[in-house]
Amino acid sequence: MTIADRYDVSMSSADLTVIDVAESSRFELLLDGERVGLADYSLTNGVLTVPHVETDPAHQGQGFAAVLMDGVIGSIRSNGQTIRPLCPYAAAYMRRHPETHDLLATGSSV
């Protein structure tokens, strides 16, 4: 199953890429090289605080925000970090995915 299949996105997973643009403190979701979503963050002492997640209006309702959050969570897990999901969407994503709860920063809830 591809990421696109998992989130019912109509494109193949090869078309979608999540990248960490550290110099801008945000993750970006690229579709064929074009940014279609972003997740702003700050990183302090291994805690990634996510205050904002968005998808371009033309791509809303297609599962792209979930693909983006899946990439953010994957990066956090692989880097041994934790997350403080301040954005309502980021918190809702984590509520729907209890397998991510081990990544919640101390004092954070979803």
Summarize the structure.
The protein has 110 residues and is an alpha+beta fold.
How does this structure look, described?
This protein is α+β, with helices and mostly antiparallel strands and 110 residues long. It has one domain (3-96): Gcn5-related N-acetyltransferase (GNAT) (Aminopeptidase, 3-Layer(aba) Sandwich). It contains three helices and five strands. The protein has helices spanning 3-6, 64-78, 88-96; strands at 16-21, 26-31, 34-44, 47-55, 82-85. It has a five-stranded mixed β-sheet with strand order 1-2-3-4-5. Strand 2 (26-31) and strand 3 form a beta hairpin. It starts with a helix and ends in a 14-residue tail after the last helix.
